[in-house]
Design a protein that fits this description.
There is one protein chain. The chain has 408 residues and is α+β, with helices and mostly antiparallel strands. Helices cover 43% and strands 21% of the residues. The protein is globular.
């Protein structure tokens, strides 16, 4: 059987690079990539967060996601540029058009990154390293910006490889290279490890990806629940997910809401996210479909946006399972900035009744959760959406009332 060859292509500092290319095309002489510069939400009031930064800005300690005011303290000469999402979509479309010249099996993972299945293309484009270099050079010559290309036999390792030294590089990370190239890295560099998970892993004495790979999977599951098993598999380079092109049937299901007053408390945000998740999952069950990916979107009160996506361990339409992942994504992403809008979206829709892979480390009673969802759907369809609420929703309401009483 032919070994798979998977590329992960990631645009270097996408928003900043695209701004630089567009400005140079329109006659500006200064390349934003060569000076301390950053793309942010609100340049005039200097509020919001850093969405992308140049390498010179990074040398000052400017980081993506930090408040603009903090970035300016580190680098007073920082050039700030307001985001232009309409233009970014155009650049992304041109980027994807080039990738389609190399393969028809492409999975766009976000606006600035994609997986490409290059299995069996050696006769057309040469060995993987040659094909990646050719692809990278074509993007730079035709579109004016640089990318990193990660090469491996699965998506996880390809993505990890593309995050190695930047910019404008090609890296490999095949299974036989894991011990030397991936295991020495800090555990926070592993895909799917956010701040909350990193803190828990540190509490277990796990500092590197290698430590995680050699840890007891049951101990990890005890501390991190289902995520523990996923991280253990990822640390060992285990991933058999296919590169999936989105079919018309896989348009996804989503729901979002602009709140009447800014949200400043985690509990209040999670209450809204639970309502959104319930709405999405009810529609999934009505259509008898399941999803494999979930995304949380936030728009802050300064109109900047953030989103975070993760794959689900198995295709599902179970509310509690999807909500647990929604909460984790929210916790990893939110920095306390007041929230104006929250959204939950799903992708990779499947109508096939896929069997769930059994695990010794997962004691969740999925059949019980499915019966709970079915019962709640039935009650709500007969008596209205407010006829029944989950215990978690009632608990959040009680905690809020308790907090308000304490303030009084």
């Amino acid at each position: 059987m032919q070994e798979r060859v998977i590329f992960h292509i990631d645009v270097n500092s996408a928003f900043l690079s695209w701004e630089a290319v567009e400005r140079l095309k329109n006659g500006e002489s200064t390349d934003l990539r060569e000076i301390p510069a950053a793309v942010c939400g609100d340049r005039e009031t200097r509020h919001g967060v850093i969405l992308a930064k140049s390498i010179p800005a990074k040398r000052y300690g400017v980081t993506t996601g930090e408040p603009v005011v903090d970035a300016l303290r580190k680098c007073p000469t920082l050039t700030l540029v307001s985001s232009n999402h309409a233009m970014y979509k155009e650049k992304s479309r041109a980027f994807m058009d080039i990738l389609r010249q190399y393969s028809d099996v492409i999975e766009q993972f976000s606006i600035d990154e994609a997986f490409v299945d290059m299995t069996g293309t050696k006769r057309l484009f040469g060995v993987p390293e040659e094909a990646a270099a050719r692809m990278k050079e074509q993007i730079r010559n035709e579109l004016g910006f640089t990318v990193n290309v990660g090469i491996s036999s699965n998506k996880l390792l390809a993505k990890m490889a593309s995050d190695f030294k930047k910019p404008d590089r090609v890296h490999t990370l095949f299974p036989e290279e894991i011990a030397t190239k991936m295991w020495p890295l800090p555990v926070r560099d592993l895909f799917f490890v956010g701040k909350a998970a990193e803190k828990k892993l540190y509490g277990m004495g796990i500092r590197t990806i290698g430590d995680l790979a050699q840890a007891d999977p049951q101990a990890l599951t005890h501390v991190l629940k289902k995520q523990g098993e996923v991280l253990w598999r990822y640390a060992n380079g285990l991933d058999d997910s296919p590169v999936e092109t989105e079919s018309p049937d896989a348009k996804g299901y989503s729901n979002s809401i602009t709140v009447p007053m800014d949200i400043t408390e985690s509990g209040e945000a999670k209450k809204v996210l639970l309502s959104l998740t319930e709405n999405v999952c009810r529609r999934l069950r009505q259509d008898e479909v399941r999803v494999e990916t979930v995304t949380v979107q936030i728009r802050f009160n300064d109109l900047t946006r953030a989103s975070h996506q993760c794959p689900l361990p198995a295709a599902t339409n179970i509310t509690q399972e999807i909500y647990d992942n929604v909460c984790r994504l929210f916790e990893e992403m939110w920095d306390g900035t007041p929230i104006r809008l929250l959204g939950v979206s799903t992708a990779k829709v499947t109508r096939e009744a896929q069997g769930r892979q059994m695990s010794l480390f997962d004691s969740t009673d999925y059949e019980k959760l499915e019966k709970l969802d079915s019962a709640m759907d039935s009650i709500r369809s007969r008596f209205g959406a407010g006829a029944v609420q989950r215990a978690s929703s009632l608990q959040m309401q009680q905690e809020k009332k308790k907090g308000e009483k304490q303030e009084k």
